[in-house]
Design a protein that fits this description.
By secondary structure, this protein is of the alpha+beta class. It is built from 18 helices and 23 strands. Helix 2 crosses helix 3, helix 11 packs antiparallel against helix 13 and helix 15 packs across helix 17.
């Protein structure tokens, strides 16, 4: 029963389906990406779209099983040991390849080396890791965090006036050198104390803006359900302790309260679950990936929803589908304990449960979450404020946005389209020589998302078949120019 339920799920971060035995390079990239991330399952013998169990013959399945083991051993480094098993579904044999998150990350293709052969999982695709991501994987292997790393070429004193004042008012003690050292905000190195990235991030010093210009929250209230027209906009770029409350106050200014009379009493309720929103903003600040350059936190308020986007993928052990369980994994191992020390975080692992509990009082608010490229996005969708049609459209648009942003190939395809084009013309414009790569990674995904369409849909294999943008594709391509989405 669990397998049947699994087979109905879409491909994603931890799941992939292959109708037939895949190319060696594709198989290795997926296994490496799973091992570098949260692990995952590959099912061979299952067609993805439409989902159908094809199966593998009994004569072939043991040969393929051994072939996979040899390919992984010969081409992946360090050694990855996937569990390979045979599954019987509807009297058809399917090969299941389970890959666990590795402890010796980063894993990579031997032939390409670490710099060019490391892959990570973004949505349902594998992406080559850049230097930033490889460095983060190296830190995870050493069980250290970016915020805890000392900064060696900075010797100046930081402006910590606001943080020290808050610390004294909350703790009743001075935030002196000894306290900073105890909280690991200062790190000893060769008889000296070095500033950490965390200390710079929580400071009000100009050095923070110089080293971490994107350690800020961009808040905006838009008119309608698109990013075309701003009603209000504000940047929160002070110390991290202030940013949470400032962004939260911005949200409160742009949502309403309603009043209901129950007998002789009047009960007021905010339009959205504000405690849950505050928790998501707090998590965005505390758990974002500060090593990613060029990305900031965004809080967007539309007529029908509030959307919070934070740089950095969802941590591997955290599952928003199981919010009732008390989950806790810390990305920033200095910043998070400092927030907790000041009482700005409750018990570890309570955050998701707090969100789930408050949502029970808001039956017209739908919580949705997406991994949008290297960012994590949470939406509070107000289904009561929009018509059913508008709600469905907004949900589809949000889902398409998440998928589109996670697939650079689709962006490239849409950008290169001009009028009606043959498949060969599109492939040539993208400078691609390998037709299966073009079809599997560019053309077919764009067709599935209804961003492009065939000019002869009744003759899909026609040699004169051409492709053109749909209205949805045109709208998305226009939005690519928007700085808000980048």
């Amino acid at each position: 029963m669990k397998l049947k339920k699994l087979f109905k799920q879409p491909e994603g971060r931890r799941l992939e389906f292959k109708e037939t035995f895949p190319k060696k390079s594709d198989l290795c990239k997926t296994i490496i990406a799973f091992a570098n991330d949260a692990g995952g399952d590959i099912f061979i013998g299952v067609k993805d779209s439409p989902r159908e169990i094809i199966g593998i013959s009994e004569d072939e399945i043991f040969i393929i099983e051994e072939k996979i083991s040899n390919i992984v051993f010969d081409n992946c480094y360090p050694i990855i040991n996937p569990d390979i098993s045979i599954v019987n579904m509807d009297n058809k044999l399917v090969l299941k390849v389970r890959v666990y998150r590795g402890s010796n990350i980063p894993y990579y293709l031997k032939s390409k080396g670490k710099a060019k052969g490391t892959y990570i999982r973004i949505g349902s695709s594998n992406r080559q890791a850049n230097d930033e991501i490889i460095q983060e994987l190296e830190r995870q292997k050493r069980h250290i965090s970016f915020d805890s790393e000392p900064v060696f070429d900075i010797t100046t004193d930081l402006n910590l006036d606001k943080v020290k004042s808050l610390y004294f008012n909350t703790i009743g003690a001075e935030l002196d050198t000894m306290s900073l050292k105890k909280l690991q905000l200062l790190k000893p190195f060769q008889d000296e104390l070095k500033l950490t990235n965390a200390l710079i991030l929580i400071s009000d010093d100009p050095l923070k803006h110089q080293l971490f210009p994107y350690a800020k929250i961009e808040c905006a209230r838009f008119k309608g359900s698109t990013v075309d027209i701003f009603i209000d906009r504000k940047t929160m770029d002070g110390n991290l302790l202030e940013q949470v409350e400032q962004a939260y106050d911005f949200v409160l200014r742009h949502i309403n309260q309603s009043a209901e009379t129950e007998g002789v009493y009047t009960k007021t309720q905010w339009q959205y679950p504000i405690k849950a929103i505050r928790e998501v903003i707090r998590n965005a600040v505390i758990h974002r990936d500060y090593s990613l350059i060029g990305k900031d936190i965004k809080v967007a308020i539309y007529d029908h929803m509030i959307e919070i986007t934070s740089p950095g993928k969802l941590l591997p052990s955290v599952d928003y589908n199981d919010m009732e369980s008390r989950q806790s994994e810390i990305r920033n191992r200095v910043i998070a304990p400092f927030f907790k020390h000041l009482g700005l975080i409750d018990q570890w692992g309570n955050g998701l449960k707090l969100i789930a509990d408050e949502l029970k009082n808001y039956n017209k608010i739908a919580l949705k979450w997406f991994e949008v490229g290297l960012q994590f996005q949470v939406q509070f969708l107000n289904t009561q404020q929009a018509t059913d049609q508008a709600t469905d459209q907004a949900t589809d648009q949000a889902t398409d946005q998440a998928t589109d942003q996670a697939t650079d190939q689709i962006k490239q395809l849409l950008t290169n389209m001009s009028g009606e084009m043959l498949s060969s013309e599109l492939r040539s414009s993208l400078k691609l020589k390998h037709n299966p790569t073009f079809r599997n990674n560019y053309l077919i995904p764009a067709l599935k998302l209804e961003l492009i369409e065939m000019t002869k849909p009744d003759k899909p294999k026609s040699p004169t078949q051409k492709y053109r943008l749909t209205s949805k594709g045109k709208e998305f391509r226009e939005n690519l120019c928007s700085s808000w989405l980048h």
